[in-house]
Amino acid sequence: MPGTSSSVSDTRAAGTRIVQLGIGAIVAILVGTAILLFMNLPDADAFNQAIQDLFVEGDIRNPDATRMLEILAQSGTEFSAVLASYRTVIFVLMVFATALMIACLVFLTTIVGLNRRMGEIERSGITVSSLILSREERVVLINNLEFKLTDAAMETLSVLVEARMDDEVLSGAEIEAMVSGKSSADADEAAGATRIKRLRDSLGNQIVSELLVKNIARRGYVLAIDKDVIRMI
Length: 233
Fold this sequence. Notes:
Distance between the termini: 29 Å
Radius of gyration: 37 Å
Strand content: 5-15%
Largest sheet: 4 strands, mixed
Order of helices and strands: HHHEEEHHHHEEE
């Protein structure tokens, strides 16, 4: 299916571009925030510079005042060290926030992609590369997955397989008639629907069985697979 493949490729490429643009936007926003934050932080040497200006410009001869300025200078040095450590902590936190936001974006994109893929599967049906039916062993192999069926479920599936080979859609009454040997006029629609339900129950996986045996409104039931992959042994 060239059209489908092209559509899937285009969707993947668009998704990749969205992720790349999202990551770029996150990095740009956080880098800009970090630059503004660091630019507005006080200078670590501003306090020391003010004390130095007092020493240079002021004619301080009082020993007590000189001692006080020395203490203030030491305090300024400690403040500078603390502020430098704060800058390091802020930088680490910004890097951590960037990593978290990128991870969240990737996870959200993955979830959206999976939901979209599930929607496509629900619309188009399950992709079956091979369906091998063995009436004698009452076994069906779907994509090499083996399902053991009851006699009734095997008869129902055999009828659906033969109908799919002939490109036919069978109503519940027609399925009941072909399995039971009755005429379509005497067969019950509900009985055919019950056979379909039991077949789906025998296949086990609800998603697989619902997508494999599809119900077309006002027409009937059909196997949603390519007839070229069917083999009966």
